[in-house]
Write a structure and sequence with these properties.
With about 250 residues, this protein is an alpha/beta fold. The chain is built from 7 helices and 10 strands. Helix 7 (about 205-215) links the parallel strand 9 (about 200) and strand 10. It starts with a strand and ends in a 17-residue tail after the last strand.
């Protein structure tokens, strides 16, 4: 069910419910609870990995609630489904802290949230600026999204698509599990169907790497500032990406 760090019988026990531990950024968020309490002998941490599954996240949380915990740190996969977790915890007088992605529950005591929609909007604003810098009146864009049933993925996409100019046309939307291995071949198929695309927007780092891989495999990965360039950009970052890979070009 989860990974537990055990303390003494008088310890405080906290559960960290993660939407996934399979991506670098999420892994760090989950492990941070252990890192910051490693010198506290009276604190026990259980990390729950939902593996991008709302049903699993709810069931795992109910299990630790039934066992008894002093608090839950909730990083929800699904904003609506996670309300059940907060309700179950509240019934047992267990406080819940919400972080990263927001839950729709109104019973959260404290939150530290990342603006998923705002992140997409910032990407739209920067893309609009790139269009202006290159004198582009219109653009055709492929969007590449991970686990689209998740609230995070939806908000990151809509933040982008709802804030780009009306002259921007989304010619294809790719849905994958958010890994380069799954997204790259789907992106390549989209490129084949839309050879005149101007940009690829990816809403997580794995999809972004998949976009770069697809451009390379399609024979259209070139240094930026060349004529007819394809811009590959999005939300997230990690050791896999570097600034030299921020944009690509197509002949």
């Amino acid at each position: 069910m989860g990974e537990t760090e055990t303390a003494g019988s008088d310890s405080q026990h906290f559960a960290v419910s993660m939407k996934s531990m399979g991506q670098a950024g999420l892994f760090v968020q989950g492990q941070a609870a252990k890192w910051y309490t490693q010198d506290m002998d009276d604190v026990e941490i259980t990390i729950l990995d939902a593996e991008f599954d709302a049903t699993k996240q709810t069931q795992d949380a109910r299990n630790v609630i039934n066992r008894g915990v002093d608090g839950i740190l909730l990083n929800p996969y699904d904003a609506e489904a996670s309300v059940q977790i907060v309700e179950a915890a509240t019934e047992e007088n267990i406080p819940v802290m919400n972080f990263d992605t927001a839950t729709l529950s109104e019973d959260i005591l404290i939150g530290a949230l990342f603006g998923q929609y705002r992140g997409g909007r910032v990407a739209a604003e920067r893309f609009t600026q790139m269009m202006e810098d290159q004198g582009m009146d219109s653009a055709k864009v492929i969007t590449s999204v991970f686990n689209f049933e998740s609230t995070t993925s939806q908000q990151r996409l809509f933040g982008f698509t709802e804030n780009v100019p009306d002259s921007v046309e989304v010619v294809a939307r790719i849905e994958s599990d958010g890994t380069p291995e799954d997204s790259a071949p789907k992106t390549q198929s989209a490129l084949q169907a839309n050879p005149d695309v101007d940009a690829i927007y990816s809403n997580n780092v794995g999809s972004g790497m998949g976009a770069l891989t697809a451009l390379e495999q399609f024979g259209e990965y070139y240094p930026k500032d060349e004529e007819g360039h394809v811009m590959a950009f999005g939300i997230d970052g990690g050791p896999e990406l570097s600034t030299s890979h921020s944009t690509c070009t197509r002949r």
